[in-house]
């Protein structure tokens, strides 16, 4: 099988060398096709390894075929344009996240033109199946190194001054990548966040010593010396490469510094994308420097191993080049991390650990229930106005938004909003687990304890909201009857309000899930705006605002700036939450889809208004209806919590770029913890020192 193809290749290669014709890439395509496993095969890895060992065996037994194959590859590579492969493949473009995503989306319908004259196009021609990277990257490096050794490929060959050689083309790629890295590293978003500039702001002096410029000087000197002195592969003993690698390490340190100080500097999608591109350039430069420098004379596998790693990276990059979801997921990971961290600033008081915090949480939740009862009354009054859909949506949204903002301003709490704001605490629990495999069990225990704290905080918030929202709703409805002489809702409207809360005969649970999504999104929005406050230096700009400085004293301006810094995220999250909740039903009406929201506190208030209205009309209220409605309200609260908490947990996991593979272990530990510490899921520790003890115990382990 392989011998026949190689025999044909040898004959064609002999004629080609005599006539100096261009090599035909079809032989390489056919060779890879023989190695490629069938799509539906179960043991693909074993199949590929067996085929590859057969090919190596043929090359070792027939050295003339190995020589022909090697000459064929060298001529194929020499006639191809290399730069796009080294400088673009596996490296994100400069177009930006969404522009790049749109381009990848268009490529799904109309792929870009690929030519064998381009080495990148040759890779796509040979590894044309989008799943090729799965079996190719799964191959042992040792086996691919054996293939290269059977072909006699142990180092680069050629002259540094001949454009046709792979050696020279790699040197060109080093210069191009170095130029790009220097350009990206001197953009204002980067240099203004470096330590020397963050301290003294002396941009003109600091820029001269930027590692991104220094690496360009070192790499340019490295390439120029090779070409000036005609240094061939394997003969390079210069220290220029070591100097360049040191500067690349400093570039990497600078990028790491910016990433570590995100809580201070803030983050943006463009900056995140830029830093990721810079890291990709650094990694590719390291690879090319190693390939063009002098590997150890005693280790003939170092060069083939580097080639293997490079080609695995390239094949995977090209096979997944049009994957839009992977592109967006990869580039939003770091930004998601920062959003989660800043969401913690808004929701850092949404988890109770002590009895004092637990009681205070209950009191503040009672205040939230009172405000919600007023909002329910206002919503019913607005609905009686029979406004057009747009006007009704606007008034509903303003009612919710201003009410939620008022809840925040007064320091009250709204039930089910907490889980959306606690992603950072969950992520912190996961961080401990990821740091060391030895502490994996303790980390899981920390996560379980965090879940218990969120659970009891949520339950007391439920209780605080409902215990006030229902009687306050009844009182307001009764007061309305006394003042105006008529119930707040007519009989059909009252029945409709109750029917919409039935757990089985209505879509209340689905609508509660929709509300849970919006609650989670509000937490995400809060984190985004908290991040924007830092990234855009909003407090500093407020302090320097010429109009505000004219009308406010220095102390007032300082308090205003500090308030915006601490509360903008929460205010924005509450405001947008109001508009999401207020518009969804009208959006559903326009689309012809039964979209709506249900929230436990609003459901309790709505039930109170409907119940008092029916009694005022002289309607009989059955016990069964009350029981089903109460069960519906409990189900709504459970769905609010489950959906918002699940999304927060997913966000926390995504922000740390980790996955919980021991799900069964976590569930088992959670069940065990619930059996032995059931009280902690409902009530705080009896003494505050218990919290301290648990905390330090987990730290000591």
Describe it.
There is one protein chain. By secondary structure, the protein is mainly α. The chain has helices at 2-19, 26-35, 44-61, 63-78, 83-87, 97-109, 119-126, 132-138, 141-150, 166-185, 188-191, 195-200, 203-207, 211-228, 240-260, 262-265, 269-292, 302-319, 324-347, 355-383, 389-409, 423-435, 440-484, 491-499, 508-535, 538-543, 546-551, 554-591, 600-616, 623-655, 663-676, 688-700. The chain has three domains: 1-154 and 295-322, no CATH class; 156-267, no CATH class; 349-696, Glycerol uptake facilitator protein, CATH 1.20.1080.10. Helix 6 (97-109) packs antiparallel against helix 19 (324-347), helix 19 packs across helix 30 and helix 20 crosses helix 23 (440-484). The radius of gyration is 33 Å and the shape is elongated. The protein starts with a helix and ends with a helix.
